[in-house]
# Entry
Amino acid sequence: MARRSRPRTVQVPSGATTVRIPTQRGARNAPPVFVVVSESRPSLSSRIARAVGGWAWSHRASWAPTGYAVLAYGLVAVVHVIAPWMVFVLAPAAPAPLLGLWWTRKKRSERIGERPGRLATSSALAAGGVGWAAATVHFGPLNAPLAWAWVGLTLTAQSFWLVIRRSK
# Structure
């Protein structure tokens, strides 16, 4: 049987409280966990950050297109630096969503569904996004017209997303 060691003393800053969390099942030899919690009142900036963070977390699904657009901007900037040859992959792929929509309407029109406008708008936004990515990989992310095109595509996609979510 393992010998129990004496609890270690922990230095706690003044104005803070320690909370000891007992060891969990199956972790008998694991050291105890201590959480240091400040007793002082949070500052105004930390309150604002917590409120904005809580609001953003509770509405995270509504802001998905904007999050993906920011992620895409960063990834395209990295691709511009690391692999500028990707423009030769992205540029031919730009019309692919529109060609896919055209092919589906031509060959299998029953698969379009009851709301073809949504599919057409989604295809146009996807084609615009891939075209923007190809141009940004080629010219760079700091090109002002491409940055404004990114803002326009992001606002359009965000608005389209909010309308689609409300109309279901």
About this structure: The longest strand covers residues 16-21. The beta strands are 16-21, 33-38. Residues 50 and 56 are 10 Å apart (CA to CA). The mean pLDDT is 83.
